[in-house]
Task: structure prediction
Amino acid sequence: MSTVSTAFEKAQAEDRAALVGYLPAGFPDKETAIRAALAMCEAGADVIEVGLPYSDPLMDGPVIADAVYRALKGGTRIADVFDTVTAIADAGTAALVMTYWNPVDKYGPDAFARDLASAGGAGLITPDLTPEEAGPWLAASDHHHLDRVFLVAPSSTPTRIEQITKLCRGFVYAVSLMGITGTKEAVSSVAGGTVARIRQHTDLPVAVGLGVNTRDQAADVAAFADGVIVGSAFVRRLAQAPAPDEGVAAVRALTADLAEGVRRSR
Amino acid sequence: MAAIEQLAKEYEAARTDPEFTAELADLLTNYAARPTLVSEAKRFGAEFCGGARVLLKREDLAHTGSHKINNVLGQVLLTRRMGKTRVIAETGAGQHGVATATACALLGLECAVYMGEEDTRRQALNVSRMRMLGAEVIPVTAGTRTLKDAMNEAFRDWVTTVETTHYCIGSVGGPHPFPMMVRDFQRIIGVEARQQVLHIAGRLPDAVVACVGGGSNAIGVFHAFIPDQAVRLIGCEAGGDGDGRPERTAATLTLGSPGVLHGMRTYLLQDDEGQTLDTHSISAGLDYPGVGPEHAWLKDTGRAEYRSVSDAEAMEGFAALCRTEGIIPALESSHAIAGAMALGRELGPGALILVNLSGRGDKDVATASAYFGV
Result:
């Protein structure tokens, strides 16, 4: 049983959705990113997604793209991502790494899985890895007992959803809208439809990401999904803070707000 | 995935539809001015290429001034066929952007072109051309503000607007079916040139030379010659300022390693952790850290050779062709011209070299004037 599954089961037992929070490692610097992630754990996030900063983040809008650009310019390396994961895991919260595929490909999927597992990581979220090309990652994640989260889009066909959900472990990531992170607001009717279509193919928990910024939006999504994923709103708090302490405090406050949202609607 | 699956299906249907192929052929002939000429560059061959006989495939004479129109006409017809009303494109040198804006004007489609801010500055003429043709030019300020970043933004647009919008990729890169489809639309260059060279010289060339950024003009001219084992295929990559570090070049096949970018597995300029490197070339159109996957295959199988040509060598080629032939080549194409000069000196008199002159250099006169101080 993975720690991610445990987190979703705990949320379900409490009759609420799980809160999944995203932050990129190394932004605005390594220590602040770790402190912000730990603040999220303390304030009610059930799972943390640690972003691996990448030079060409195609799924991300300006907020996250700028943050990871700055993290890379600040010298963030994969070892820093693993350190961040370890800090979160040591605090008792499940940590997944969200990464584009090329850094894993270059590192070597098995070596990456081995080092992520020994850092205490629970698995990977892979936005640009297609099922057709996933063979090496399936083998590596099996070998090192890691979760693997693939994304389903509103445009995904039933055949595609079947193919994707069969490979997922931990949860299924439902993208709420056709677009990129941090630019549009989720529309519950679209996201709800995607979640319903996913449930026809799997019993895994389904978490909804993209376009969730506020407690009310979290509550809306929590009404039909098993998890609510929030990223850009957290990153924006860190980016806009005049000093690291204020950024961490803002992240903590938003987490508490969202944690209330995911508990409200049922 | 749904979008590229739809595209693959539509393209498969279109390419075997006589109505589609006839309409494309008509546009290529009566709008884009194909077939383009093959001109013999006698003075250039004698003075700069060791006496080798040099033939130029004149894509610079195609409508809009480069080979890019070949692919764009195919893709805009496909856009209309799919019932979409908006076309987006990325562009480096601006030639693909101009071609896309042109074809959209012709077919009455909305057009937006993403272009790195650095490139909007160094290719300002093409920015004006696109705007006059009715396209929206969107400067991209992310990353190194060049072609790769423009492509990132175009993908982000596409994922948001896919129901109404077709992404018209200009290079032989990106996810399937783009590398195959763009290759198919560009292979007319080599099909024409092979016949033309046989007609002019009575034999196949010893080598075909083309510049390679993403690689569309090179695949276009190479493809028909692939079965001709005796014909060497030589791609000239941007060697940049020549200090030897990969990040000061855009010489992906010469200095890169395999990886995944923009939906394709190919050679990339990347660091030890898979981060894409910044690139440099004096020519905006070659300034890209990846390369079409078919070139990666041609390199790995040994069927094609890839060489690095520095900014300085390319500028020497540019000047040589201007002065001996009265042709101002694009800075991209100047890399192929410089490649032919080196190859001609290696092979000597009696050699027959076909060079793909992929575009004209009007857009580059400001860069060249500054470089030569004229």
